[in-house]
Write a structure and sequence with these properties.
The chain is an alpha/beta fold and 140 residues long. The chain has a single domain, classed as Rossmann fold, CATH 3.40.50.1010. The chain is built from seven helices and five strands.
Length: 140
């Protein structure tokens, strides 16, 4: 009998986690790029993609249109877009973080990866595991 194919975990990454991995190429989160490109299925929604593009356009990053497109191309082709994302029954104390919680539930995520205290406070209460980026990177 052959070995069963390993199913890639479905993962929601919050915006700050993605931005750190994309823009700080030698930073502590740069290893996330290899993970989302090969070892997991990142989930995205129209709302989370719009938020990512908005943050990448911040003046402090000073990205040209070509650099913005390049950054998005390092993430978006690997993401599975979840079309319908109803509100989760679990509410986050910061409404700006709610879309990630909603996406995790709607997309049947295995994990939500964030360094945000408002999302991390929901560990053990969400429909999936909530991990810091360091915890996620420490997984086998």
């Amino acid at each position: 009998m052959g070995a069963r194919a390993r199913v890639k975990p479905r993962v929601v990454f919050d915006t700050n986690t993605i931005v750190s991995a994309l823009l700080f190429r030698q930073g502590r989160l740069s290893a996330l790029r290899a993970r989302w490109q090969a070892a997991c299925t990142p989930l995205a929604s129209a709302q989370t993609v719009a938020e990512l593009a908005r943050v990448l356009n911040y003046g402090r990053f000073n990205l040209s249109p070509a650099e913005l497109a390049e950054a998005l191309a390092l993430y978006l082709p690997y993401a599975e877009v979840v079309e319908s994302v109803p509100a989760s029954k679990l509410a986050c104390r910061d409404p700006k973080d709610q879309p990630f919680l909603d996406l995790a539930e709607a997309g049947r995520a295995d994990m939500l990866v964030s360094g945000d205290g408002d999302l991390l406070a929901l560990k053990g209460h969400a429909s999936c595991r909530i991990l810091t980026p360091a915890e996620f990177l420490a997984l086998p």
